[in-house]
Design brief:
By secondary structure, the chain is of the alpha/beta class. It contains eleven helices and 13 strands. The strands form three sheets. Strands 3-4-8-7-5-6 form a six-stranded mixed β-sheet, sandwiched between helices. A hairpin with a 5-residue loop joins β5 and β6.
Length: 389
């Protein structure tokens, strides 16, 4: 297998606003009783500032223009070079995976797509595949260890600094556009080595490229009761982000990103984070390129949650181990042809190889790579659903 050598550097965006007042989201934006307080800007404020301000909110025209610039969309303020390079990356994704993933999902997990929310643990800033697989969700909950950090005033940067930053953004996106996943170790290292840090520009890029109009971005945290609330002023990394957006003429949607340790030491049963997730209506979950962390009992809490407290699970073999799924009592469907994982991981799961060959499970082919197994002929997708009572 050809090795991927990707240098992942990231942008982060900070928005300063003034004259802020808090208000509650409309009832249709608070499913299952979850309340999110949102800051409103009275005067607009500076779009590119060096500190997080209360709510991190901006007028939709401004924040959406920034998203379009990061995405390199025609008509944006991005250079022609950035537009051409981003278009090339996007065509690669569409040809190799995008259209095929959407067609597969519409055929095979249409029932799970009908839920109002999606939970995507270990996602990092991968809104791309969350959208491709679950385009109809109204709320997306993503989490990872990658920070959301402020930038200096982008308007104070030279043309060369802006161009270098956009080059870094494209390099960060190259692995997921070409292979379908971020390289986590490189991403974390490079996030800290660049002046432009954090997940927000990557999230904005994916939102713009998938046809969203971004309305606002707010800093949020999860309180002790499992509600997302305004987080206050932050000079460094934010605990979480809420991005409000809409697609076409549809209603408002929300994308949450939280910096969350999913090991047992950082996430406990019935704790604030999993309570917040459950308040979204026990949504289905997506797990992809998760470094086989849930094969270790140090991640048993999130593993148990995915098996027992979701309305369905779509994953590659790096998620919940097959031995757990096989003994869970869930209805299981297999896709692709599992032959073991890539060499940098030791979790080969011979029992999953046997399951594919046994004839006991429904196995259907796929024509695209998914997760670490980015070659279609080697890929594997597992879908688990609760059995009807």
């Amino acid at each position: 297998m050809k090795a991927l050598l990707i240098a992942c550097r990231w942008f982060a965006l900070a928005l300063m606003v003034s004259g802020l007042t808090g208000c509650r989201l409309p009832p249709d934006m608070t499913p299952q009783g979850t309340t999110v307080r949102r800051a409103e800007s009275a005067t607009g404020g500076s779009l590119f500032a060096g500190a997080w301000e209360l709510g991190l909110s901006s007028k939709s025209s401004s924040i959406n223009n920034v998203a379009r610039m990061f995405a390199g969309l025609p008509g944006s303020s991005a250079s022609l070079h950035h537009q051409q390079q981003m278009e090339s990356l996007w065509r690669t994704h569409e040809w190799s995976r995008g259209a095929k993933v959407r067609a597969w999902a519409a055929s095979e997990i249409a029932d799970l797509q009908g839920h109002r929310a999606l939970f995507y643990p270990f996602s990092g800033p991968d809104y791309l595949f969350a959208h491709e697989l679950f385009p109809h969700a109204e709320t997306y909950v993503l989490c990872g260890l990658e920070p959301a950090e402020p930038l200096p005033d982008l308007q104070s940067l030279s043309d060369g600094e802006v161009a270098a930053g956009l080059d870094s953004l494209r390099r960060a996106l190259d692995s997921i556009m070409n292979a379908g996943y971020f390289i986590t170790v490189d991403m974390r290292r490079d996030l800290q080595s660049s002046r432009f840090r954090g997940v927000l520009p990557v999230l904005l890029t994916f939102l713009a490229r998938t046809g969203a109009t971004v309305e606002s971005v707010d800093i949020v945290r999860i309180d002790a009761s499992g509600n997302a609330v305004l987080a206050g002023t932050y000079q460094g990394a934010a605990p979480g982000l809420m991005i409000r957006f809409h697609q076409g003429f549809g209603g408002m949607k929300r994308l949450f990103y939280f910096r969350q340790d999913l090991s047992n030491s950082g996430t406990r049963p019935g704790g604030p984070f999993l309570t917040f997730v459950s308040k979204q209506g026990y949504p289905p979950a997506l797990v992809k390129s998760a470094s086989y962390l849930m094969h270790d009992d140090a991640f048993s809490t999130i593993r148990n949650h995915l098996v027992r407290s979701t309305s369905g699970l779509v994953q590659d073999p790096s998620g919940v181990p097959w031995r757990t799924l096989a003994g869970s009592g869930l209805s299981l469907s297999l896709y692709g042809s599992y032959q073991g994982t890539i060499g940098i991981f030791s979790q080969q799961q011979p029992d999953l190889v046997s399951a594919y060959r046994s004839g006991h499970y429904r196995v259907q082919p796929v024509d695209f790579g998914f997760g670490y197994l980015y070659q279609p002929e080697r890929t594997s997708i597992l879908v688990a659903r609760p059995r009807p009572r």
